[in-house]
Amino acid sequence: MIAEFERHLRYERDLSPHTVRAYLTDLGSLLAHLDDGGVDGLDISTLRAWLGEQHAAGLSRATLARRTACARSFTAYCYRRGWLANDPGLLLGSAKSPRSLPAVLDQEQARAALETRGEGEPVDLRDQAMLELLYATGIRVSELCQLDVDDVDRGRRVVRVLGKGRKERAVPFGVPALHALDRWCVYGRALWIKEGTGAALFLGVRGGRIDQGTVRRVVHARLRQVEGAPDLSPHGLRHSAATHLLEGGADLRSVQELLGHASLNTTQIYTHVSIERLRAAFRQAHPRA
Questions:
Q1: How far is 160 from 146, CA to CA, in rounded Å?
Q2: Is 48 one of the annotated active-site residues of the chain?
Q3: Is 261 noted as a catalytic residue in this protein?
Q4: Active site residue 164
Q5: Which of 164, 209, 272, 277 is catalytic?
Q6: Among 209, 235, 272, 277, which one carries the catalytic annotation?
Q7: Burial level of 37, CB count in 10 A (0-12/13-18/19+)?
Q8: Per-residue pLDDT tens digits of the chain, which is 289 residues long
Q9: How close are the terminal C-alpha atoms of the chain, in Å?
Q10: Strand, helix or coil for residue 108
């Protein structure tokens, strides 16, 4: 049953590997709560009791919301397969997870973080190109790691990105990112290519496609060198890029397209960041603030 549900998530719903892993972990917790009683005993009371245990254990609201979504998906799948007489997940409510404002760099901190570092070694060229591209495009770290050489259109200064739900989008980038990519591809990547490297744009020191953990370490290490900068992940650069676009006059719909958000509601959080900065500036500068 679990294996069939996993195939449903992977191939029918086309969820990301990370989401599939999370859902299977959540499902394991739910089935353990049933105490080997089988799905026949899965009703709304059982679901609420399971989620109540999770809440009592101190799980965050975001995790509870995800576990609720997993339960709904699983009960709907079981109902369609005839394993349940009805779908109890339809009666399951879900508290919305709080949306806190993300920490971001200010524009001066971003400029300082993107100043060229190192002595021109391949690893320095790669790190600089990754940072420039992350900030220039606001792409996710997973999208960066998936990029191939052919995904970069140098003439149009556009990168082709495969985002969530395998949705493809084209994201423009600026001249500094182009120059950093050129230096990496000519003087860095060419020296690391090995048999089996393939078309990956960014490589690890052993010649394979770079992994997300390496990108995160690079971002954290660079931001530690910037005085006063918050310790952000690659997603923090994405938040920063979106915020700076809006502060520079970009409209919300364009930022939504650039980031690959399915809903405009997801993008609107960046307007809150900008408003907080406006309020801070108002309080500091206005005589009647």
A1: 10
A2: no
A3: yes
A4: yes
A5: 164
A6: 235
A7: exposed
A8: 889 999 999 989 888 888 899 999 999 999 888 876 678 778 899 999 999 998 899 888 888 989 999 999 999 999 999 999 999 999 887 666 666 667 889 999 999 999 977 778 999 999 999 999 999 999 999 999 999 999 999 999 999 998 877 788 999 999 999 999 999 999 999 999 988 889 999 999 999 999 999 999 999 999 999 999 999 999 999 999 988 988 888 888 888 888 888 777 777 777 776 766 667 766 777 676 6
A9: 62
A10: helix
DSSP code of 152? E
- Per the annotation, the verdict on 23 as an active-site residue is no
Q: Alpha-carbon distance 21 to 186, whole Å?
A: 38
Cα(129)–Cα(124) distance, rounded to whole angstroms? 9
Q: Residue 53 corresponds to which amino acid?
A: E
**Catalytic-role residue among 33, 55, 216, 261:** 261
Question: Which residue in 67, 140, 189, 244 is the catalytic one?
Answer: 140
Taking the C-alpha atoms of residue 286 and residue 289, their distance in angstroms, rounded to an integer, is 5
